[in-house]
C-alpha cells in the first residue's frame, strides 16, 4: 500500500499525464468519445486526490497531537 505522500504524488502524476493527453486531443480537434472518457477519468482522479489529501492532512494533524 502507498503512503499518503506517495499516493498523492502518484495521483498528481496521473492527472498531469491525462491532462497532457487531453490537451493533445483538443489540439488535434478530436473531442469525441476518447476525450470524453479521459475527461471522466480525470474528474475521478481529481476526486481521489481530494480524498487522499484530506486523509493525509488529518493524519498529519493526528501525528502532531
Number of helical segments with 4 or more residues? 2
Number of strands: 0
Q: Give the fraction of residues assigned to helices.
A: over 70%
Output mean pLDDT.
87
Order of helices and strands: HH
| Global Rg | 15 Å
Shape: elongated
The structural class is mainly alpha
Question: Which band does the percent of strand residues land in?
Answer: under 5%
First-residue to last-residue Cα separation: 24 Å
Largest sheet: none
Indicate how many domains the architecture comprises.
1
Note poorly predicted spans.
none
Explained architecture:
This protein has 65 residues and is mostly helical. It contains two helices and no strands. The protein is 86% helix and 0% strand. It has one domain (4-64). It has helices at residues 4-27, 33-64. The chain is elongated.
Strand and helix map with partners:
Elements: H1 4-27, H2 33-64
Helix pairs in contact: 1-2
Brief description of this entry?
This protein has 65 residues and is mainly α. It contains two helices and no strands.
Descriptive labels:
single chain, 65 residues, mainly alpha, elongated
Amino acid at each position: 500500500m502507498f503512503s499518503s505522500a506517495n499516493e498523492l504524488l502518484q495521483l498528481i502524476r496521473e492527472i498531469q499525464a491525462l491532462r497532457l493527453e487531453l490537451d493533445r486531443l483538443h489540439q488535434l480537434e478530436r473531442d469525441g468519445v476518447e476525450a470524453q472518457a479521459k475527461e471522466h477519468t480525470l474528474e475521478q482522479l481529481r476526486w481521489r486526490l481530494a480524498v487522499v489529501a484530506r486523509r493525509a492532512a488529518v493524519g498529519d494533524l493526528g501525528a502532531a497531537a
